[in-house]
């Protein structure tokens, strides 16, 4: 796990070599595969660290094993029973104490909450924030002043109990488990959530006077230093999922009437949630008993709400735009002065504005900070120094990535995922702290390589839910899910991945490996051994077109800095390289370090010689190379031949034509904007535009795709094309976009550019052409394509093809 001094392939930093390690994930990108598996072994399965390597000991920190973690544990392990993980979680959920259901008939002390309340802690009805332990029967004065030796009632675990049952049943299809747990879930839902918490008619309301969300209230959730309560956003978003879950569980049990009742209640809930908590660009954290909204920009509330499906597409766009905008500057921690919501890289901040004193419960505050004497011991921890006030939790990344997949697309989600994995890999201890938790042995440390302290970021120890952050690969990009109809595979790979697979998937007690791929390699050299700096030179790689292809890719390193840009071009030769003809050239932007980058090209045949060129980087950039490669072709730096070959791939990604408008009797010159509006009734992941350059070879433009989200045009894709071939089809590739109304626009011309138009074309009322926002007759010359995926499940004899946006279903 040693780090080189200069350019480092992130994947090489962490490699599980121990015999006990489980590496379920494989992808076409080593910089994702290796750190994802290392992440799963540490944060998923919970192997201890001995120094900087995995030991042979697992920790109970693999699981929450507690009521507040029931849904998280199920989400983390429902898909696998590796090391008996799912069975263990089913045991935890079955053992959860529910008043009047699984509690003793005459408990001591007497129960405080009514029937159906799920205990806040595994062995206590209240959360253990009374600071009283057998070893310390007298709590610290600060905690005694705050809580008077009495813990707080929490409420997030109540709907989470039902959600955990639902996930475990869908994956296991254990009839005995359903028969045991459904009656319990009905009591929790009907008597406590719909009854005691008044969820039958509106948002859940925390009962009693202790959790009213005001300056005198107690913490009501896992976020145990925030005085959230009354109508809590996090609790209520989970309640929405619980209503839908109950519909499924009742249907599985044959109770159609009950299922319909729960689903009908769920259908009315998003509007109520919106009315109570929506602020204009996000949901507030809670609304207190005095009808006041409390909003410090709580990402941990908003992102799960998106993943659960509460907002409209337009509202989700506003939430994601807020996350991509500056936040309040941090005043403490490792990133003082930062306004980036993603200052910790692994996940967005927990909140984007400081928590005020009246919203902070100081029960576990440290001693006052002598550097800021104006703050007393009851004030919030300094903004940026605590994971509940400007810091972050690793698990929040799961919801961030899944929300972007649900409401945007995979190319928007993957950079967050890649950066999270790379950040973990670049720390010699994989970001895990070692300061008293049963997670590691040897010297203790409480600060990571980026200056972040344990307490500023929540990663290991009491945060087993951190393991969720790697699972967007399975649940999101691969699209693996279970419902009452079966086990589904609905892939949504980003352009940076050609394939992904997961082993050890356990559905109904039957193990399988699921692999999805969006194309096949026609030719490739995929080993990254040595880096060649681009600098001011041209780096080129030749290869032979041994089969049809429509995409090329290269792997580049950006020296630990994401967001670089470079120009990639493809040329062809029919005379063994004596003369070259341009095929496609793009300016590739926002490049992730050590990632594969792919460019669509017009469909190519066989038999020609080709040349890839990387040039004009925006900063330090290298093209990875394997000096021992013997594939057909050669690598060059300028005119100098290099040993081996650069890392390159030639891909044939099957496409079906959704729409083609070939008519072209007018050439509209680009001087401002040229656009084409269209409606996509199916998902699509490629478009081509027929462009003229008036005999020039150095002209270019920027192309953008916007989607109508109900409130206006939202930018989804932007690509820069250079050295466009005259009268050619210019191809754009991107992660699959959902059906809807779109605008394809080109602008920012370099040289002379025209986009052809068929002036009499009539594709329908939702199709139109425009120039500088003025409508023109007919439609532009363009085509729309839908990709397809190969789905393989060897253990089940499955090898089939599904169109993008569709799914393959297994029932066994």
- Strands, total number: 41
Task: Name the beta content range.
Answer: 25-35%
Q: Low-confidence stretches at least 5 residues in length (pLDDT < 50)?
A: 1-6, 9-17
Radius of gyration: 28 Å
Task: Tell me, rounded to a whole number, the average pLDDT.
Answer: 94
Give a short account of the largest sheet.
Answer: 12 strands, antiparallel
Oligomerization state of this entry?
Answer: single chain
State the strand order across the main sheet: 24-23-16-21-18-19-32-31-34-29-36-37
Number of helices: 13
Please state the structural category: alpha+beta
Backbone shape: globular
**Helix residue percentage:** 10-25%
End-to-end separation? 41 Å
Protein model, in words:
The protein has 812 residues and is α+β, with helices and mostly antiparallel strands. It is 22% helix and 29% strand. It contains 13 helices and 41 strands. It is globular.
Topology:
Layout: E1 25-27, H1 30-44, E2 47-50, E3 53-58, H2 70-77, H3 85-94, H4 141-147, H5 157-172, H6 175-196, E4 231-232, H7 233-252, H8 256-277, E5 286-287, E6 293-294, H9 299-307, H10 313-323, E7 392-393, H11 396-407, H12 410-426, E8 440-441, E9 457-458, H13 472-477, E10 480-483, E11 486-489, E12 499-507, E13 510-517, E14 520-525, E15 530-533, E16 539-544, E17 549-557, E18 564-573, E19 581-591, E20 596-604, E21 609-615, E22 622-626, E23 635-637, E24 640-642, E25 645-646, E26 648-652, E27 655-661, E28 666-669, E29 673-680, E30 684-692, E31 700-708, E32 713-721, E33 728-737, E34 740-750, E35 754-758, E36 768-771, E37 774-776, E38 779-780, E39 782-793, E40 798-803, E41 808-810
Parallel strand pairs: 2-8, 7-9
Antiparallel strand pairs: 1-12, 2-3, 4-5, 5-6, 10-11, 11-41, 12-13, 13-39, 14-26, 15-22, 16-21, 16-23, 17-20, 17-22, 17-26, 18-19, 18-21, 19-32, 22-25, 23-24, 27-39, 28-35, 29-34, 29-36, 30-33, 30-35, 30-39, 31-32, 31-34, 35-38, 36-37, 39-40
Helix pairs in contact: 1-12, 2-3, 2-5, 3-5, 5-6, 5-7, 6-7, 7-8, 7-9, 9-11, 11-12
